[in-house]
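Fold these two proteins, one after the other.
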Amino acid sequence: MNSVTTANLENIEGIVKLDCEIIGNMSRRKHIEKIVGEGRCLIIKEEDEVQAFLLFDTNFFECSFISLIIVSKSARRKGYATALISSFENIAPTQKIFSSTNQSNTNMQKVFEFNGFVRSGYVENLDDGDPEIIYFKLI
């Protein structure tokens, strides 16, 4: 696995391509462009292709928040999400890190728990019948 780096404008096409492969559309392109431009995106590349990325901000009650982690289907179960989380912990602007995932996303729940996050609550009504579980870690 290649190392985690901060994305730059040259990486946007690869990030958007990967995002589109996973969610089936390019609806987050402008958001990704903004986040990358602000230096709030970490990536892992393999053979010049973006294989995984993490987006973050500090808009969650002034705490660090991992808003999105995407790993390509071919790179899953290889430690990419853990590598991104670990790298983010080293640069996080706050000691408190939060993130979330749907109740139906048991794989991501396992990733958070493996990386020392604990459940901190949930939010109903974002996705019908699929509550969002909030995770927390103090670094």
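Now the second one:
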Amino acid sequence: MKILAFDTCFDGCSVCVAELRDNSVVALSSRMERFETGHAERLIPMIGETMEEARVAFGDLDRIAVTVGPGTFTGTRIGIAAARSLALATSAPTVGVSSLAVMAEVAGRTIDAEMLAVVTDARRGEVYAQLFSGRGGRNAYSEPLLLPIDDAARLGGRGAIVFVGSGAAAVAEAAVRHGRAARAALPDLLPDAVALASIAAGLEASDAPLAPFYLRPPDAKPQDKAIARV
């Protein structure tokens, strides 16, 4: 099985071409770049470069995997639109995965913890949060949530916990104030397409259209009144 996986949910872009061999996912080529804007301009060239380096043709793909959120509205839409287009062009089925699960998969490979929570800054004193076992993103204890920092600090009860992601420092500080054994790690953590491919290989693919997973309505709203023409 050959998999094309990519993420554009947060402040970066990650692409991987991987192959399932004897129940192990092997990355044939991968790239990750960090930036706050420019996902639309960079994603397709990165996919082309990664496919070329992996020496895999688009017609050989068996699966396309993408993160479906939570994340920025623009970034999430860009990734899903690209996955839909490529699926239409190649007839490869798609798999959508939580961006937080992918981040937990990355963190679980480097952090020794019984309980792990991915918490990314959603601004307005809130974080996108999801609770996992320390083994990674395939062992979720909660759904992805949008929570105030104090509520995120209470995820999983009062047991020891490690918070990872851009909101980790603030949430861990709040947890310690509540008397909890907590620490922050990996503040620069982003979804990695290599981890995404690893998760996607074990999921059922679907021909159904991918849909973005948003935890907050968009800031931009349609106007209530029509603007009069001059």
